[in-house]
Amino acid sequence: MEPRGVRIFLRVFAFLVMAFLYAPLAVIVTASFNASQIPTWPIKHYTTHWWHLALNDERAHTALINSVKVGLGATAIALVLGSSAAFALSRFRFFGQNSLSLLLVLPIALPGIVTGLSLLSVIKYFSITPSLVTIVVGHATFCIVVVYNNVVARLRRSSGSLDEASMDLGADGWQTFRYVMLPNLATALVAGGLLAFALSFDEIVVTNFTAGAQETLPLWIYNQFRLPNTAQEVNAVAVIVIVLTAIPVYLAQRLMRDTGGLTTR
Amino acid sequence: MRVRFALAAVLIAAMAVAAGCGSGSSGGSSGGGGTGSNGPKLPTSIGPTEGKLKLIAWQGYTEDNVVKPFEKQTGCQVTVKYGQTSDEMFQLMQGGGYDGVSASGDASNRLIAAGLVSPINPNLIPDFKNISPELQSPPHNTIDGVHYGVSYQWGANVLMYNTDQVTPAPDSWAVIFDGSSYKGKVDAYDSPIYIADAALYLKSAQPDLKITDPYELTQTQFDAAVNLLKKQHQQIGNYWSSYTSQIQDFTQGSIVIGPTWPYQVNTLKGSGVHVDAVLPKEGATGWADTWMMYSKAAHPNCMLKWMAYATTPEVQAKTAYTFGSAPANPQACTILDKEVKNYCTDYHVTDQNYFKNIAFWKTPLQDCGDSRGNACVDYSQWALAWTTIKNS
Amino acid sequence: MATESVPAPVAARRRVSAFLYRRRWLKLVLLLIPPFGWMVVVYLAALAVLLATAFWQQDVLSGKIIHTFTTDNIQYIRNDPTIRKVTRDTVQMAVIVTITDILLAFPLAYYMVRIASRRTRALLLVGVLMPLWSSYLIKAYTWRLMTGDKGTINWALGQVGLGPLHIAFTQTAMWLAFSYIWLPYMVLPVYAALERIPNSLIEASEDLGGRAWRTLRSVVLPLALPGIAAGSIFTFSLTLGDYIMVDLVGGNKTDFLGSIIYRYQGVANDLPLAAAVAIIPVVVITVYLLLVKRLGAFEAL
Fold first, then answer.
1. Is the Cα dihedral B258, B260, B262, B267 positive or negative?
2. CB contact under 8 A, A249 and C16
3. Chain B partners of A221 at a C-beta cutoff of 8 Å?
4. Residues of A in contact with C234 (CB under 8 A)
5. How far apart are CA C233 and CA A28, in angstroms?
């Protein structure tokens, strides 16, 4: 047990850090009501104009839907590939295992601009038409490691003996996978999937290089800033997104209540 | 970052090497190739439309209020890819698949030289004759009398200052190049092409350098401009590339003086911020955009209809208002002046003298385009020098 | 074992199952091919192409890449003093931001794991995750507003009678913004690592006479280190490659590596030169990854 003084200090510190995390978000919410077209502080006049614009902006809606589509696509690919890699690297022993795990980390560790430029070179070389598919491919690549990490951590904590027991009892590979392994991994997959989706949803750099005429939400925001008359609309959109995403995050958190956390397992 | 506008617009102008002042032509356009030939026979009427149109454009040129009526009128469904810089637009055109592009001056000449854009028949554009005379056949989109597009919008880079904090009112670029009174509160345009602004200033301030064209500089002239900018770096608060950011800076008072476009000036004045702008006595750089058609366009008739549509007074006015630019077709003024009082006067839409005093952006090339031959510094060096300036 | 007949698809499945069970190596290969096939084809090959491009040159006029081998670009990045200065500045900021985030995240994570009640912990966890969903771009713009001369920070200081700080477009402003924006990425792995430490270990340490500080130093920290190292991968590499925050909050007054790469590939349309500069962060991060791997970071991501 930590001494009382330390506990009080930590409580205060935690509060301050959370305040630090949320202060800019409070500014965003406030700014979304700023009547001025130019970002200024403090706010002199309030308006709901930006909210009207945001709720009726078709282009923003399309961008949001595109972002969701891309996120789901990238997450689906990452779930399959990440789990596959996790099984391969944790249930087997073979030469070169460590370099493979390094390989998976690279897309997320190297700067987005390097990944983006690389993918762009390939797109141009093969004269591929950029589309939502190229964006999904780019995103899936750095999302794989996020799923991999969650699944591998879970696999490390459970031995393969459960699976073998299942087979001893007469289940084939598929049944074992479906009735024994999957439930065990469920929370890891949800955690990994959620994080992967979040990464893809807010990604701008790689997306900039791999998109064609389509816009994801970050691209829309980026372009919207250039329009002086409606630039401030982005604040309202940002708040809407935060509110919308509170729901899946909360649900996921409840889902993983027993394991106590979203991050591991 | 890259304000598309800025870069793109900025980079405009490729007055083709030959351009020079004057007339046209001969020889040299960058690279020699692509001077207009009498070859291609141009269509004399616009055929049936193809139902689709794919454009590369600067953000703001293809807003719904401009595109939707066009789609209704012609049945051409428009999809737009926004380019962030002239270079990106050039790369996109190289990749193919688009029908047209709103090219700035530096991109336009390279597009012509690379054979990526087709000549057009001005008779197919009803408002062509209404375009300002100096923009009907400018060197950046017309070679040897052959038109490779229609001029769309243009603007100049002026000097804006906070009237409360900057006294006396400046009339020269010296304040931001040679002065030190506003240290930390000066901004500058974030692109290597800004070196031309320094060169333009040195043309008057250091006449022994004998600078004639701020985009075609010998090594000595170039080094002088770069050194001037390194000196300026000590005074700089930030380098702007998005006009929204610059507006914010002047509103907050973080920046009190720097080069800008009329749009920012008017927006700030409109919000009650005490600023004013001046075209300094040494002159200014500027940008001009052209709609050009891809030489292998899949939907050429839709593109021609677009060009015709884009030069009508209503569309010119709508875009000029959104963008903050000067329309190429002055007939838009009657509409614009209703929306914003004195728009056309403020933006000098019909002022030929103003127009002539602007050094429109173009790609610096090794071929100086005059008696100096191949002694000039090309744009790749400008980019490298810009990195050195920023980190000096 | 049941002897009733089994439907055909199930029987086929069982045959495949048995087949794979006996040939474990085949199972391994089938598991490895999708993910690593993808990585090699989509990512490694692309990366190789980019790095190879560093050895080519761009034709200024036509914008086409000339495929003749040259080391001009490599010479440039090795010898140019500006590039060296920018690399130093970028790495410096990445390190400072990483340290800052560790100092902010560790106590928070410790509190969440060891002291907070179950409900508070769940609340805080959601609280840390939520900001991840708000747009990076908008946060960057907001920091520009906040650090302005008449921005939120100065306004807040003014409310309590403190003088205005001129931090607009300074390294300080960038440091604040970077530390802010990557913080959740550091909190999550540290939290996960701390959570994995069984209570019994801490109690054992105390039983052995270790007081809070000693326990922290000798038991908790070493076990949390992989998590800290994992989080540092994010803070370090995200700062190292950033160019958007440098522009919006830093005013683009000086360059980071990302800004230069972006400029060369965009404005200058010189992909080979951009690729050459891109080699620098690739090398730096690969070295960093190898270092951090030793600390067990990869298991703690």
1. negative
2. no
3. none
4. 108
5. 28
Q: Which chain C residue has the Cα nearest residue B246?
A: C251
What residues contact residue A80 under an 8 Å CB cut-off, 6+ apart? C34
> Residue A226, Cα to own-chain centre: how many angstroms?
26
Q: Which tens digit of pLDDT belongs to each residue from B99-111?
A: 999 998 878 888 8
The nearest CA of chain C is from the CA of A66 a distance in Å of 15
Name every chain A residue with its beta carbon within 8 A of the beta carbon of B80.
Answer: 213
In three-state secondary structure terms, A13 is helix
Identify the chains in contact with A, defined as 3+ C-beta pairs within 8 A.
B, C
Single-letter amino acid code for the residue at A196: A
Contact A223 B5 (CB under 8 A): no
Compute the Cα dihedral for B319, B324, B325, B326 and give only its sign: positive
Token duo for residue B29: 């356009």
H/E run at residue B247: helix B243-252
Here the contacts of C53-59 (C-beta below 8 Å, separation 24 or greater) are: C53/A121, C53/C271, C53/C272, C53/C275, C54/C272, C54/C273, C54/C275, C54/C276, C54/C278, C54/C279, C55/C272, C56/C272, C57/C272, C58/B380, C58/C269, C58/C270, C58/C271, C58/C272, C58/C273
Cβ atoms within 10 A of the Cβ of C295, count? 17
Residue C112 DSSP code: I
Q: Is the pTM of this model over 0.95?
A: no
Amino acid at residue number A198: A
Instruction: Name the one residue in this structure whose structure tokens are 């999957």.
Output: A182
Q: Could you give the ipTM of this predicted complex? A: 0.85
Cα end-to-end distance, chain C, whole Å: 44
Closest CA to B5 of A231, C214, A247: A231
pLDDT tens digits for range C156-202: 998 898 878 888 888 999 999 999 999 999 998 899 888 888 888 88
* Interval B344-367: pLDDT, tens: 988 888 888 888 878 888 888 888
Token pair in block for residue C132: 């991840």
